[in-house]
Specification:
Radius of gyration: 23 Å
CATH superfamily of the largest domain: Metalloenzyme, LuxS/M16 peptidase-like
CATH topology of the largest domain: Cytochrome Bc1 Complex, Chain A, domain 1
Strand order of the largest sheet: 1-2-3-9-4-8-7
Structural class: alpha+beta
CATH architecture of the largest domain: 2-Layer Sandwich
Distance between the termini: 64 Å
Number of helices: 16
Amino acid sequence: MNKILLKDVNETIYHEKLDNGLNVFMYPSDKVEKFEIDIVTKYGGRINRFKKKNEKEYYQTPNGVAHFLEHITFHLPNGVKAEELFNKISAYTNAYTNHDHTVYYVTSAENFKECLETLLYTVYTPCYTEEVVEHERDIIKAEEKRYENDPDRRFYEAFTNALFHKCNQKYKVVGTLDDISAISLEDINKVYSTFYHPANMSLYIAGNFDKDEAIDIIKKKMDTFKFDEFVGIDIDVPEEPYEVKEAYKDIKDNVMTSKVAYNIKYSMDAVKKTGLSLIEYDLYLELLLTLNFGSTSEFYEKLLDDKVSTSGVGRNNYKVDNNYIVSIHGQPTDGRIDDFIKMVDDQFNNLSFNEKDVIRKRKTFMSSYITSFDKPIGVLNEMMENYLYYDKIVDNWIELSKKFTPEIAKKIIDSIDINNKSIVIMEPDNK
């Protein structure tokens, strides 16, 4: 078992890669009574065209298969539902699917061995039949209809569709009603056999448990399952045009206050030209955005003081295929939408780096990072995000933050194409 020492906080994460390819990451802690176990597959809603490396032809599925598969995986042999097994051992289980991956998890304060074995049994005992597929199809359709009545969901769909021409990020993870109707048992089995191999998956445990007991349980349980040789997976990613699809979009909906999404899109080639790793770029861009748009920035204070917004702004930055997205979003006060957009525009055109502010923000970042280890489940999510997006556990966040300089800030500022932006507005429909 390998030890990953997090240098900044003197904490240890334990890692072992099993013979079948499953990567196991563990953070034992006696700071809490509970534990959480997550099993993750690198398969989410954006993936709809793929093949195993030893296959000639790509397989095309409707959108929504990842979410559909998440639902039916809880159906076990002999008509048993996974939830029933977990209820008997005083545990809570659930799952979720996003664009990139699917997560199955269980949390409890007791019966660790039974929880771990049952979760492994649930994920690695496919019991997919036409009857199960049809049963869940109606449930998923009802779920999608509920989403259709959610303005926040419609707002997200509006600005992703304005950003992307072909990138599958613009499609609903759950799929449309037509997608859900089109999903077949063949699709389900093909996806499972391709993406639910341990070599394409990872397992995370955090909280109150014994690491040696855990790895012993995992190895013994995994030996009861049979897997084909993992040959690798090719995913066909649509070639996304550089320009945003729509520069401006104004829609009406059943909302009380207006919403604005200000999204900038640029190529990952621009990120690579900075000479920074993706880990460094993400960290330094986040620090730069915090300096310029964070709750203690001059911009934020002016936004509130001038009553352009009563709730400030939120922000995101993330990689999607060969694109990088920077997003600022907020709720302007009545009649101040144009002022809100102009203030964000002006700030992006004048991104600044102040040494004193950086030192102050770094201290805040360090404090937040250190105290995060008081909540092991937060550490679990950090481990998962690190491995899924960087293919490693980052062990030196604070050390990296100390290397943020004006020169690096300039490289990042120069990489952001502020002219290639999409602004989407959702306003109250007063009809």
